[in-house]
Amino acid sequence: MGKVRVLVIGSSLFFLLLTASSCNWFLSFPEQGTRAPISHNPVLKIGERYTDLCTMNVPDHLHRESISHAVFHHRPFLIFFGAPVHCTPCVHEDRLIKGLMDLYHNRMAFIHIDDYEDSEQATVHDWRVHGEPWVALINREGTIARVIPGDASYDSLDSMIKKLIR
């Protein structure tokens, strides 16, 4: 009986560790319909390299605007939480979002929060992020219109963005 108990407990702990270390579960991300946390996320400053804020291997240009600026100016925005250096779905998501930004940058903001180097940054805590990738779309009023855990498709995000900016 003792060996079975140890096996069950060991298996449970292994499953918990495996699940918790995967890309994005056990989360309490803010819910759709709630106010977006008004964070002062790091933005790229003159003279800084994009690698100071991002682990993507090519510049993604998603570190130019702060959440607080977008909310203050009633600018809808997409926020992407992901650390491409260790999360394969995050690389795909980053490229996909960069493509959408190229289409819609004049109508809304696109913001990437890469917490690989600094998982203690205030934005990560404000948004209660405990994994990645996560995407949220925020409307002009600063309300979370959509929350997308895990990786999303280009077509689904494109459709959601079109509804958001109408």
From TrEMBL:
PROSITE patterns named in the record: PROKAR_LIPOPROTEIN, THIOREDOXIN_2
UniProt xrefs under InterPro entries: Thioredoxin-like_sf (IPR036249), Thioredoxin_domain (IPR013766)
Occurrences of domain Thioredoxin (ranges): 30-166
Protein's recorded name: Thioredoxin family protein
Originating species: Leptospirillum ferriphilum
